[in-house]
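[Q] Does anyone have a clean structure-token version of this?
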Amino acid sequence: MAEVESFTLDHTAVKAPYVRLINVEAGPKGDQISNFDVRFVQPNSGEIPSSGLHTIEHLLASLLRDRIDGVIDCSPFGCRTGFHLIMWGTPCVKEVTAAIASSLHAIAEEATWEDVPGTDVYSCGNYRDHSLFSAREWARTILEQGLSVDPFERVFIVH
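[A] Here you go.
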């Protein structure tokens, strides 16, 4: 089987919350795609409940695209401790972290239920599993802890 980088990462050594560049891959025509580990919760110490994570996912889908160019996808990890953020090009970790922090601030302080996209039977595969309350509380908690630009040391550009 192919080796997957995230399964080789020592999850006991990282210090969440952080943003980490996993890798940059080049396509056959030279296009570059960056994959980021956006870790909101310390691995094996807790997880974001599915309804809050789902709402964060839907809000980040729009908010990140409003704040930084090149977003392809932002999908939650199955372990519910964060997200993979896939982007065109090679944006720097600091730019990505600033866009995520700004998006979390919008979730924590500004988002209303009407702002959450894709919350009906036609636009979501599990539309009943959302919680804006949980999303707001988790966004506040993550921002209070600060998003590090280094997964192993607490290094902040935005706090």
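[Q] Thanks! Anything notable?
[A] The longest helix spans residues 50-67.
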